Amino acid sequence: MPFYVYILQSLKDKTYYKGFTENPSNRILQHNNAEMKYTSTKMPWVYVCIISFETKKEAIIAEKKIKKYDHSRLEKLILADKNILPTLFL
Question: Which parts of the chain sit beneath pLDDT 50?
Fold first, then answer.
């Protein structure tokens, strides 16, 4: 079972949110149904990046690093080949 680190972008103010999940389809619904307090004021959200990892440990380590990225570095990651979002049908 893969694990995922994701980047969401708010359509309201274009800010980014970074997180970890085992189920990207369910997670975006949680964010857009105001189930997550932090993201509830900036809905709607869309995925701009999803990166897959084989282990939960790898994904959590990557998430912690990505949460420290500045705007420029996030945008480079969104455009990188490791972003599997273009190949997914959520």
Answer: none
